[in-house]
Design a protein that fits this description.
The complex is a heterodimer of chains A (about 140) and B (about 120). Chain A is mainly α. Helix content of chain A is about 65%, strand content about 0%. Chain A is built from seven helices and no strands. By secondary structure, chain B is mainly alpha-helical. The chains are: A mainly alpha (about 140), B mainly alpha (about 120). The interface between A and B is medium-sized, with 40 and 30 residues.
């Protein structure tokens, strides 16, 4: 293969790296990706390729999360994957709106929601487990 | 003709010296002037910018290995630059991803943001 062709191939591969990972079946994902996306293991191969890409990008961030955050993500990921793109967009919009609320009010809302969560959720079997009981 | 071919180097030199001795002073002066001009042009060209010389390195018989090595180094540099660029571009274009991560890992339940 000539040098220019090799060069173009490398550029192509670099540009399409996430898309290539998203096209892989579950067994071909890296161990790290499998660990991050474990809740989606069963349905991964049935998820359309174009919808897998955001999860591949989530998996890339997974190693940087704390243990508690990892547990929360594992609990929430499956439900998140079931949402339609429109529902996810609405959720992001709400998050953005909530982020614009003054921090004092935000903390009050946060406190209220967490207290409400404690009252409505059954007592946890594992004290170290994060909130967000199975929904 | 044969006589000319048989001329030795020494004879040629003698002939040239004899001919040079017969040249008149005005002609000698013009020749000297032309020589000085040629030398001046040569020195000016030798002092031309390094890039002009560098551009001609390949035509001066540099081995093909050197050319290939230079091309490979350039290729690696471009690839590294491209990879870095795309990684940074992917990271900077992640406002949605950042929010997804926040929703999925925040201490607030996900229901707060989902209808």
């Amino acid at each position: 293969m000539s040098l220019p062709r090799l060069f173009l191939l490398c550029i192509f591969l670099l540009c399409h790296q996430p898309a290539l990972a998203a096209s892989k079946p579950w067994v071909k994902l890296t161990p790290l990706q499998q660990e991050a996306l474990a809740p989606l293991a069963k349905e991964w191969d049935a998820i359309p390729e174009e919808q897998r890409q955001p999860f591949i990008r989530l998996a890339k961030r997974y190693p940087k999360l704390t243990e508690v955050q990892k547990q929360r993500m594992n609990i929430r990921l499956q439900r998140w994957s079931k949402l339609t793109p429109e529902q996810r967009k609405q959720a992001r919009d709400k998050f953005r709106s909530f982020s614009k609320v003054p921090i004092k009010q935000r903390e009050q809302v946060r406190k209220m929601v967490l207290e409400d969560e404690k009252l409505t959720s059954p007592p946890p079997t594992n004290t170290a487990a994060p909130t967000d009981s199975a929904r | 003709m044969n006589k000319n071919l048989n001329l030795s180097q020494q004879k040629i030199t003698q002939l040239l010296d004899r001919s040079a001795a017969q040249i008149g002073q005005p002609v000698l002066q013009r020749l000297h002037h032309a020589r000085m001009q040629a030398l001046a042009r040569y020195e000016a060209r030798s002092a031309s910018p390094a890039l002009a010389w560098a551009g001609a390195w390949r035509t001066r018989g540099a081995p093909q290995k050197t050319y290939f090595f230079a091309a490979a180094v350039l290729l690696v540099a471009v690839l590294l630059g491209t990879a870095t660029y795309w990684n940074q571009a992917a990271d900077s274009d992640t406002s949605d991803l950042d929010i997804d991560i926040a929703i999925l890992t925040d201490d607030l339940p996900m229901d707060v943001y989902i209808d």
